[in-house]
Recover the amino acids of this structure.
């Protein structure tokens, strides 16, 4: 033991330097990507229109990625998040358009339903001690059915313009308000994770349930709360989704699940490497959309989106594993 | 014992083994004869398990060591597959059975003989029944292991090893070596008897058995010879029939004197905690009164129930009984409903034995681990105050001499001793009224150990009552005012004052009547 200690001080500066590089590698990669496309397509890519549309259009994905980030931090997977998003959007549309509840009540109901869905996930995971992957996969599929049921498998259009205005039409500094909602959620979550006791507890529960328990943390309560929060945020993403287009369709939102996980895992390689974190996730989302927008403008087909989401996830996570000398991954 | 008249099946000669700078085996020689049961005895840390791991091929001994099996000198380190193929089978303490699978599934793990038509279960089960039958056992191969009784599980693991022996080169001639690593702690006395009957049958087939154990009575009953290790050396190899319990005991304990003893603290009379009828796990019953500033040890052989006490009193495992912390409020806690959070609220601290899984998160930084319990004190108007967290971590590092003195490195990069200092500092900062410890110096080097003892001593000086579960008798003698010794779930002795020595604790653990004071409870209360 004494031998290891004497060599450590010499190695430490290198260790710190490497960590700093790792922290900002994704941000740097994003910048490089942005400048490359900017140089290739100065007339189309490097316009404020493109940039502001990239920023605004990804708010839904940002909020969804932040939603799954909560249970990921506490060591659970929420695969029902995209289905919750679609169901909440559809419920909002149906209750506002078909049942005429008024937009305020519809939004409140959609958010409540999201929290309830989280509570159901938590109940099955914690009471029956089933793995969260299975419970959330099942509940997600169930919700997909519910969505098709309440909408008669149709797209419901005509959601109140009030909502649409508050989401995309109104702009601040030329960027739709939706972007700021996503940003606000990310900042609040960053603060909560880093500067509150609840955030510390969430982290310890995810990294060592037994450690957390023996340090007096009520592990089940923390895990339960993380599912409820995840459902609530996924429903919020659903509200934004409905507000983006003024309508809700029963399937298209489901394809957001993989990008959300890609962004969360990508984000876990940045800012606080090895740890799921909101700011990293934000960078992850915009890194991905920059690549996709650029490639699409260069004339690539629609399939490039999947290639990029899938490929970027694997490449980025592999690179970060190389930096840490292929230690087993310990995100959860 | 220089010239053994009978030729051995296995001869290990001059085995040396060092971990870093620590010499764990200092030239151990042992010879195993055909069809004998050899007991391997010694205290914790005497080198028994290391020797067995050398034989299993897990440890690579220093040059000069020699292992001869069936007359063939083998290259070192031993190849685990080769040694098994030559006819040495191992049964580890935890048996390595998968509870949710059937006996037959478990029996076939590691059996990779080619089967051209796939596994024909009916035929496999038939030979298993035959094997169980041969040893007079009634175990159904299709039963799930989790439905078996503890002793049946042990049988299954042992007969799996026997089957492995028979498949090996040596086994075809009816020979083989079966190595059992502490198979009895989790068995009742009756079951131990049955297990021994099985071992005698195995010996009758011509195989040899090495049994590693703590229990002298068992050794006297089952073995032909007994090899006793102490401090990395083979102290003596005795023929069981010609020896006595006392001889063995004296050889195990040796006459090493603890180098340092804590200055006896001024006795305090206020009771800090009253423990009444606590039970759970393997613990059947525990009653005690802990005074303020007192350090109380609980010990015994593995599986005797003492190790559960810290977790029971902290509400971390299911149990019964009452714990009363004596203060202004005099609150009684029911162990049934006690939770760790409530225990912490009441001023109880627990430092668990398994650092990596129970007391801290290696992937998080020293600062994050060190401040986790005290976060409430570090809150400002805008949430946690980062600068105060850093200060708190730095002052802990300075106070407990944690090296390297950097709060931001992951905790896992520290040595075991330094990690334990962080954990210790975290709990002592809470100023607990009752601090529970489980093996507080496991994997901690000598220097850090003294620092940890000093920290505990300071806490006791400030009035914290400390309860320490450990199998390190020297450590207990060094830091405790009183030590309860457990056997089969109950306290059988309480040592204190001048009687509290490493040697006496060891004697009491191996249940030697002479060391037990006549009225342990009364003496403790006086």
């Amino acid at each position: 033991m004494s031998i290891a200690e004497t060599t450590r001080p010499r190695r430490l500066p290198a260790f710190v330097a490497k960590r700093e590089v790792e922290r900002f590698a994704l941000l740097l990669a994003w910048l490089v990507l942005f400048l490359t496309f900017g140089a290739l397509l100065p007339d189309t890519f490097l316009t404020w229109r493109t940039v502001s549309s990239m920023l605004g259009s990804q708010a839904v994905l940002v909020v969804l990625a932040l939603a799954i980030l909560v249970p990921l931090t506490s060591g659970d997977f929420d695969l029902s998040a995209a289905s919750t998003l679609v169901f909440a959007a559809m419920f909002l549309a149906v209750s506002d358009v078909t049942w005429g509840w008024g937009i305020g009540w519809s939004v409140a109901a959609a958010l409540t339903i999201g929290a309830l869905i989280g509570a159901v996930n938590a109940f099955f995971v914690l009471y029956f001690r089933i793995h969260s992957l299975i419970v959330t996969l099942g509940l997600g599929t169930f919700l997909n059915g519910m969505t098709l049921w309440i909408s008669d498998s149709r797209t419901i259009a005509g959601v109140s313009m009030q909502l649409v205005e508050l989401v995309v039409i109104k702009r601040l500094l030329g960027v739709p308000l939706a972007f700021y909602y996503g940003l606000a959620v990310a900042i609040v979550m960053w603060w909560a994770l880093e500067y509150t006791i609840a955030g510390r507890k969430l982290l310890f529960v995810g990294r060592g349930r037994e450690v957390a328990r023996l340090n007096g943390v009520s592990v089940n309560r923390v895990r339960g709360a993380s599912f409820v929060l995840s459902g609530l945020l996924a429903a919020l993403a659903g509200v934004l989704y409905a507000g983006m287009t003024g309508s809700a369709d029963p399937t298209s939102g489901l394809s957001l699940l993989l990008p959300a996980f890609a962004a969360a895992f990508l984000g876990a390689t940045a800012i606080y490497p090895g740890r799921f974190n909101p700011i990293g996730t934000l960078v992850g989302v915009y890194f991905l959309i920059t690549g996709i927008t650029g490639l699409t403008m260069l004339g690539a087909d629609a399939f490039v989106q999947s290639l990029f989401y899938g490929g970027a996830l694997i490449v980025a996570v592999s690179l970060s594993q190389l930096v840490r000398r292929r230690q087993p991954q310990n995100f959860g | 014992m220089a010239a053994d008249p009978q030729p051995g099946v296995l001869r290990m000669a001059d085995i040396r083994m060092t971990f870093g700078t620590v010499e764990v085996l200092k030239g151990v020689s042992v010879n195993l004869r055909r069809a004998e049961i050899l007991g391997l005895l010694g205290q914790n840390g005497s080198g028994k398990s290391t020797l067995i791991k050398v034989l299993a091929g897990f440890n690579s001994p220093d040059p000069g060591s020699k292992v001869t099996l069936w007359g063939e000198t083998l290259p070192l380190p031993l190849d685990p597959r080769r040694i098994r193929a030559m006819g040495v089978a191992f049964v580890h303490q935890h048996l390595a059975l998968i509870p949710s699978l059937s006996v037959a599934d478990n029996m076939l793990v590691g059996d990779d003989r080619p089967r051209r038509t796939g596994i024909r279960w009916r035929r496999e089960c038939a030979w298993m029944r035959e094997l169980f039958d041969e040893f007079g056992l009634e175990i159904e191969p299709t039963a799930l292991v989790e439905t078996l009784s503890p002793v049946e599980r042990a049988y299954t693991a042992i007969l799996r090893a026997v089957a492995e022996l028979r498949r090996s080169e040596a086994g075809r001639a009816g020979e083989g070596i079966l190595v059992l690593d502490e198979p009895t702690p989790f068995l009742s006395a009756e079951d131990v008897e049955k297990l021994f009957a099985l071992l005698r049958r195995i010996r009758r087939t011509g195989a040899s058995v090495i049994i590693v154990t703590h229990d002298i009575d068992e050794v006297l009953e089952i073995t032909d010879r007994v090899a006793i290790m102490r401090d990395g050396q083979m102290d003596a190899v005795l023929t069981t029939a010609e020896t006595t319990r006392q001889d063995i005991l004296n050889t195990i304990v040796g006459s090493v004197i603890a180098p340092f003893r804590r200055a006896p603290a001024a006795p305090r009379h206020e009771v800090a905690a009253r423990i009444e009828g606590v039970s759970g796990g393997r613990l059947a019953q525990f009653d005690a009164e802990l005074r303020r500033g007192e350090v109380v040890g609980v010990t015994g052989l593995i599986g005797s129930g003492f190790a559960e006490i810290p977790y029971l009193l902290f509400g971390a495992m299911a149990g019964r009984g009452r714990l009363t912390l004596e203060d202004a409020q005099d609150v009684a806690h029911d162990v049934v409903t006690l939770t760790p959070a409530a225990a912490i609220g009441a001023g109880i601290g627990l430092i668990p034995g398994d650092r990596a899984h129970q007391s801290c998160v290696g992937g998080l930084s020293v600062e994050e681990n060190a401040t986790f319990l005290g976060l409430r004190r570090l809150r400002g108007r805008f949430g946690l105050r980062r600068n105060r967290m850093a200060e708190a971590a730095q002052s802990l590092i300075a106070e407990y001499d944690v090296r390297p003195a950097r709060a931001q490195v992951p905790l896992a990069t520290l040595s075991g001793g330094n990690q334990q200092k962080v954990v210790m500092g975290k709990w002592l900062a809470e100023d607990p009224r009752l601090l529970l410890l489980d093996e507080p110096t496991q994997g901690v080097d000598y220097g850090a150990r003294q620092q940890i003892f000093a920290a505990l001593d300071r806490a006791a000086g400030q009035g914290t009552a400390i309860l320490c579960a450990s199998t390190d008798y020297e450590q207990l003698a060094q830091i405790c005012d009183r030590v309860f010794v457990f056997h089969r779930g109950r306290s059988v002795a309480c040592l204190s004052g001048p009687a509290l020595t490493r040697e006496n604790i060891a004697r009491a653990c191996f249940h030697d009547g002479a060391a037990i004071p006549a009225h342990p409870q009364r003496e403790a209360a006086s």
Observations:
- Confidence is low (pLDDT under 50) at residues 256-260, 518-526 of chain B.
- The radius of gyration of chain B is 25 Å.
- Chain B has three domains: 10-253, 257-347+430-526, 364-429.
- Residues 324 and 330 of chain B are 7 Å apart (CA to CA).
